[in-house]
């Protein structure tokens, strides 16, 4: 089983230092059963009549793509037999004791999300977590450690790949962007394209206002 992981937002300002312009942090995953439709989708979109500036770029990214490309990529993901799971952190609710410990917060979010995914799908054997090698992810090597807090019947490994060569990494970038847009801008036009594939949502910390 392969799980592609990406993030949107920053962990640079937590707790009372969180700003209204950047109130959320998202970790999104694409749980892949069949990567062929996504590979075909990305390839086909690049072949179609899109603006020249996108064709010459080495990869497609949500942040610098237009509405048409965003819609096409996310519609493709929504039509596949692959699932989406994500964790949303409301940064202003992080305990003040942790506002200067983004590594701890990041590790906690990743482990909780992976535990929920593994439990829901009753995964066993080896699970490969794949991320873009340029991912910000604080101490990326640590999120795949086995210390999730409970015993799980799976072995977790991590791979860092070049997103320019991996359509699934490009796809999860669009997924993370769509989720972030939904919460940050109260705009779900992109999220609606993938909502049917969302199987796990961890929202820290609504509605009970708990703190990390």
What does it look like?
- The protein is 33% helix and 22% strand.
- With 212 residues, it is α/β, with parallel strands linked by helices.
- The chain has a single domain, classed as Nucleotidyltransferase, domain 5.
- The protein has a six-stranded mixed β-sheet, sandwiched between helices.
- α1 (36-47) runs antiparallel to α3 and α3 (67-79) packs across α5 (167-184).
Tally of alpha and pi helices? 6
CATH class: Alpha Beta
Cα distance, first to last residue? 30 Å
Main β-sheet, spatial strand arrangement: 5-4-1-2-3-6
Uncertain spans? 137-141
Helix content: 25-40%
Q: What CATH architecture do you see?
A: 2-Layer Sandwich
Q: Note the quaternary state here.
A: single chain
Shape: globular
Any idea how many domains?
A: 1
Q: Give the biggest beta sheet.
A: 6 strands, mixed
CATH fold-type name: Nucleotidyltransferase, domain 5
Overall mean pLDDT stands at 84
Please trace the helix and strand order, writing H or E for each element: EEHHHEHEEHHE
Radius of gyration: 17 Å
Structural class: alpha/beta
Q: Count the strands?
A: 6
- How much of the sequence lies in strands comes to 15-25%
């Amino acid at each position: 089983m392969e799980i592609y992981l990406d993030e949107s937002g920053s962990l640079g300002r937590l707790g009372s230092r969180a700003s209204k312009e950047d109130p959320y942090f998202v970790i999104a995953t694409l749980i892949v059963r069949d990567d062929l439709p996504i590979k075909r989708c990305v390839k086909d979109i690049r072949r179609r009549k899109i603006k020249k500036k996108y064709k010459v770029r080495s990869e497609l990214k949500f942040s610098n793509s237009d509405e048409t490309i965003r819609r096409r990529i996310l519609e493709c993901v929504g039509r596949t037999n692959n699932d989406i799971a994500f964790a949303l952190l409301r940064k202003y609710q992080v305990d003040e004791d942790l506002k200067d410990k983004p590594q701890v917060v990041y590790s906690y979010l990743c482990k909780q999300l992976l535990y929920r995914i593994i439990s829901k799908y009753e995964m066993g054997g080896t699970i490969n977590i794949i991320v873009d090698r340029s991912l910000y992810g604080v101490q990326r090597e640590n999120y795949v450690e086995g210390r999730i807090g409970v015993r799980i019947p799976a072995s977790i490994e991590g791979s860092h790949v070049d997103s320019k060569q991996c359509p699934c990494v490009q796809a999860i970038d669009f997924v993370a962007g769509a989720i972030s847009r939904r919460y940050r801008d109260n705009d779900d036009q992109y999220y609606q394209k993938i909502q049917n594939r969302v199987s796990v949502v961890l929202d820290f910390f609504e509605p009970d206002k708990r703190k990390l």
